Fold:
Amino acid sequence: MFRSLKYLILLTALFSCSGSINNAVEGLDIYPVVTIVTSTGGMGDNGYNDLIFDGIMGFVTRNDVALSIVSPKDRQEALRAVTDWCNDDTKNRKSLLVLASNEYESLMDESFPKPEAPKSILLFESEKEDLPDNVFTLSIRRYGASYLCGRMAAECPEAFVLAAYPGDATLEPAIEGFLQGYAAGLDQAAEVIYLAEDATGFNSPEKAYSLTKGLSWNAFVFPLAGGSNNGVYKYVREDMFSGMLIAGMDVDCSGYSTRTPFSLTLNIDRVLNRFFNDWLAGNTMEKHLEGGLAEDFVDVTVNAGFLQNCIAWEDYYDSPDYWQKAYDTHYQQALEAEKSYYEK
Structure:
């Protein structure tokens, strides 16, 4: 009963704070505290950011832990929030700062204040080395699962990667994986389309909608654009005669569009649960936690009801088990491609 009440109190507090850290929730100041700084795109993307939020919420509701959430509007606001956290007197209780985006990696320069125990930091999507003892990194390797998606989509006559912006360290392995997987099928090339020149590409669903509308009616689209992916799903929902196929991203997206035969799914909740449990128990934690298809950090989830909910426009996938067979056939090849990619 107490934990449920604590959860309700936290919900009221956390959604009222943006760009500042507020741990002063009455009655909770005796507990360890987790502070999450979301990406500048914020929550509500029905994907990566919401998956992180669900994982953290699951941990908080199972343990006596206080929670603060900061949704900065830009990098400068995020920097102020991190500085506030570093300067905050936690009165010797455990405090964990979660930087839930690789856009904050650049904050970890020589001028960054070293967190002293009992404070710790978890930085997402980074392989940065030579960080202070109490700074930990987490990296989800998407190349192998993206290769598998490309291989599964290889019979589609045209394919496009719709990505947020060029040069992002998280997106580039996924882009390359899909391109190489797709090319390994019928020796054809997919095209990459970027939404923006910077991180605004993660929050541009209208532009994603417009670009998707201009693609071939029977193309395969692999969206790597965070909240902008919603514009892709919206287009194929509204065009009932579209033969386009869309890969779901981050979570099982079969409920967002009937034209989604499979989704690249992240198991962030499992990874976070492992890290948080070790942190709370005071166990020795891995300095850098990383994994991909082989470690089950990421997978491809087949939409078993795909043909039950949409019209099949192409003969090649008119069998109910086509996509599952494609997954089973190419999974091992994807594992080998992933191993080769990260060992080079």
